[in-house]
Amino acid sequence: MKEFFKKPIFPIITASVSLVLAIGIMVAAGVSFVKCWDVPMPIEGPNVTEVKMLSEWYDGLKDSPGDTPVYVLKGEGDGGAMLILGGTHGNEPSGYMSAVTFIETAIIENGTVYVIPYTNISSMTHNDPGEGNLQYFTLQTKSGERIFRFGSRATNPIHQWPDPDVYTHHPSGQQLSGSETRNINRAYPGREDGTLTEQIAFGIAELIRTEDVGITFDLHEASPEYPVINATVAHQDAMTIASEGCINLLLSGIDMALEQSPTNFHGLTHRELGDYTDTMAILMETANASQGRLRGGTSEEQVLGGVDDYYLYSESIGMLFVPWDENHHPIEERCGRHLQGIYEYTMAYNNAYPDKIVTYSGVPSYQELFLDADKEDLGGTQLGKFLR
Amino acid sequence: MVLTIIYRLIVALVIALVGWNLFTEKKFTAQLTAAMVLIPLVLRALMIK
Question: Which of A118, A198, A235, A299 is the most exposed place for a label (fewest CB within 10 A)?
């Protein structure tokens, strides 16, 4: 037997076995990664009049991995235009799930609403290495079980490569970490001949300019240890509207902080869309347990239920910027905050610009999504009841 | 675009060298290590991850 192992053929057999094993892992991993490229889309709701692509506003995006669907919801009555940006960051699910909920439920009475569920659709096609994030989560909806992607903060590096050591923002010249070159919320107002991320940002700014969009919402989440959370950030031109809307949110029991967009922090929607277009730019943040640095292991319960006992402990030692108790922060609370915020800020916009009103109904309120829900339905079941 | 092509050619060259190492190495654990190194390299060369 010993003689057999000394023969020169034996290392070739073990090398071949190793190679076959590696090929097996390559195929399994490759299939799993390629499946992530197929991003599940919203089901068209009762008032979706058209589904366009962003390349209709900037044709440089045509056939590129940054070209993303734009759902157009046109009301019967005259009015202004509104834009909702979900999925700026693919690892912030309440942002894109609020946009999906709006598309699937809204009935527009006056004006036109443009909804982009996955603003940086490339960021939805991969996960951040080393984060242990989910690839998917599921919700029970009216049509049965539906799968949604959990993505990354930044553009997929197979679509935009390489990252520079230092990212220089156009046109301000602001310098940031090189990885921020793939963060679309550091790329506005974008440029035609820039990176893929800058081109998507340019396409969105073009949509706003072409369609005369009066008010724009950018929906985000933040880690519980980040200071700007359960908050609205508004461009200075939008502060009057944001203040009125914020008061109404507070009166309806939603604790919402309001900050004016810093003038020296560039590339963000609430700064650049306000500066380079005529829109009222408003950004909202909710508390996402699956995004933080102090979190425990990631799971669907954490993504949808917001459940994380490490954050309960972090709260007890004063490490968090958002209240945390045993109710945690379920997706219904987070989407409810975004959807109620959109409603209140839009009402304030209508008061300020009665010739450009946008009115709608059918979208679940904070009360319907969160406050009226049975406790056992929080964490995805209650949200699923409103989805098609 | 040109940079990406050069990058993929470099990755392909490294894959060839690691593959050569896999079949010339006598020690099984070293062969297994070489096979593991091939996994991310091939996924990168194919621009899957």
Answer: A299
| Residues, chain A | 388
Q: CB of A270 within 8 Å of any CB in chain B?
A: no
Q: What was the ipTM of the complex prediction?
A: 0.94
Residue B22, min C-alpha distance to chain A (Å): 6
pTM for the complete prediction? 0.95
- Look-up of token digits 């156009």: A170
Tell me which chain A residue has its CA closest to the CA of residue B44: A158
Q: pLDDT band for B4, please (50, 70, 90 cuts).
A: confident
Distance between CA atoms of A40 and A109, rounded to whole angstroms?
28
Q: What residues make up the domain containing B14?
A: 2-45
> What is the sign, positive or negative, of the torsion defined by CA atoms of A55, A61, A63, A66?
negative
* A161: closest chain B residue by CA: B4
A30 touches chain B (CB under 8 A): yes
Chain A partners of B35 at a C-beta cutoff of 8 Å?
Answer: 15, 18-19, 21-22
Structure tokens at A267: 């590339």
Q: Where are the alpha helices (DSSP H) in A225-384?
A: 239-251, 274-276, 300-305, 309-316, 331-352, 366, 381-384
pLDDT of amino acid A10: 87
For A36-384, give the CATH class. alpha beta
Count of C-beta atoms within a 10 Å radius of residue B5: 9
pLDDT value of position A2: 64
Predicted local confidence at residue A172, as pLDDT: 97
Mean pLDDT by 10 residues, chain A (388 residues): 68 94 97 96 97 98 98 97 98 98 98 98 94 94 97 96 95 96 98 97 98 98 92 98 97 94 97 98 96 91 95 93 92 98 98 98 97 96 98
Instruction: With beta carbons less than 8 A apart as the criterion, state whether A149 and A136 touch.
Output: yes
Q: Which amino acid, A120?
A: N
- Count: domains in chain B: 1
Cα→Cα distances B4→B7, B9, B11, Å: 5, 9, 10
Element (H, E) at A221: strand A213-222
Q: Which of A79, A183, A176, A147 is nearest to A303 (CA)?
A: A147
Amino acid found at A21: L
| Partners of A53 in beta bridges | A69
Residue A195: closest C-alpha in chain B: B1
